[in-house]
């Protein structure tokens, strides 16, 4: 029997171009198409995958070019017959890939934690080094996101994904199914400002109503200040604005620069009060909670090793924080 040398055969196979029929489109394009088919819209798909809607449109165009067929009706936004057929065929395969990935991650625990920027930067990040030293086997990725946009109940990474968000008291509770959550903390909220800004005021504020005549720094809107004034029984027709700055940690950066007064809590301040970068805007603080920090995840992720360890550690750290405040 003659033995054919293996190396020349491998060389030939390597040099031969792959059969075009079996070239698989990029996974990013397939995920974008599956999210579009599942949610029924480009912007909803973008929200689910946490990408810009332009990226979804680009992936859909590229996929159609690669397949040589139209997957969605440009006039109605619905899937074409070919689109429905293709989605029904690839959806189970993507789910199988997701499950295989989740299974292997259970062997090497991985956890992605999306988190509101202020909580992530000023409270969680300084403590993560200690968590990693205590649990070197857990691969934890911290991803700061805009408030309440980082978590979605579907997607290929939800089996290793947890989210920390701030649920303001006047906000509508989320209605997602198959989601479990636990309240982390309900911190009091109070106004702060830079010492230089306080000294620059002709009349320092003495009570809550005085702040209606002071430069107030707003987030995306004035809802937080309205809630705070209402909690302090202060009537108002409008909230004076020294600028809108989108997120709490940005308003605090502006407050440190002396641009006005911001609302804060202990999870956003870091060591600002201890170092004197910021001071309370009122001599007597009636610190009123306006919302709750919440940890949430899917049912499937909740009891995973990585999230169980992280959740236990997180609640312990919050309890330590509360002890130090009393």
UniProtKB/TrEMBL annotation:
Residues 25-82 form the HTH lysR-type domain. Pfam families: HTH_1 (PF00126), LysR_substrate (PF03466). Signal peptide: none annotated. This is LysR family transcriptional regulator. InterPro entries: LysR-type_TF_proteobact-type, LysR_HTH_N, LysR_subst-bd, WH-like_DNA-bd_sf, WH_DNA-bd_sf. One of its GO terms (molecular function) is DNA binding. Belongs to the LysR transcriptional regulatory family. Keywords: DNA-binding, Transcription, Transcription regulation. The keyword Cell membrane does not apply. The keyword Transcription applies.
